[in-house]
Here is the input.
Amino acid sequence: MQMQGVLNNLLNPPVLFFFLGMGVVFFKSDLKITDGVSKFLSLYLLFAIGFKGGHELFSSPFEQEHLLTLIACMFMAFFVPIYSFFIFRLKLDHHNASALAGSFGSISAVTFVTAGAFLHSMGLEFQGFIVAGMALMESPAIIIAVILDRLGNSKSKGEQKIKWKHLLHEAFFSSSVYILIGSLIIGYLSGESGWKTTKPFTEDIFKGLLTFFLLDKGIEAARQMKDLRKTGLFLLGASLLIMIFNAFLAVILVKIIRMPLGDSLMFVV
Here is the structure.
């Protein structure tokens, strides 16, 4: 990517509004975004991404590359929390090591939305099945993290049963997964006519609402920056190394599968 392209993305309105949100905390402004509005923005973006993904699945046939990508998503969702747990366990107890391992293995819907907006601003797109891949990566990491936590506790406090029904329900029917997959299915079933009727809401105003969403995320990020001082050098260093290793491994899988550029970026992110 040329420097001009990098500069254009840094000067993109949603990115600038993220930094504007950070300024709310740094300059002690009284600007606030209520929890209800914040929740609506996140649900809207997940709905819009899911619905558009369903429409793209309707428009394009399912190929071998798509299947290989979904398998790669599942592999990363299982592999990342397992090896991350043993790294964090060097300094942390079972509860915190498991929780952190799960958060590294489970994709962030916020990150997914932001990466999709970045591609959109570059004039690139990703295919609809990537949305399904994102949903597949959400649940396994959470399940693995809970299992690791329970296995660690059972050694010191006796057997502790895993409530599978509750765990699986939370993993597969949490609000973000439910709205994303539901929108994907509806976008696919409604086809071209459904896309035409919802396009003004799902695409035309997407960037405007994304801008407000990133303003809110900027405020939230700035408020949490003070917590960095509490984590210590080990957690900062381990987190950076894990992220770099995950991206490196994902790039290798992208090369093997030979994904298109837009799909490749979303998978690595």
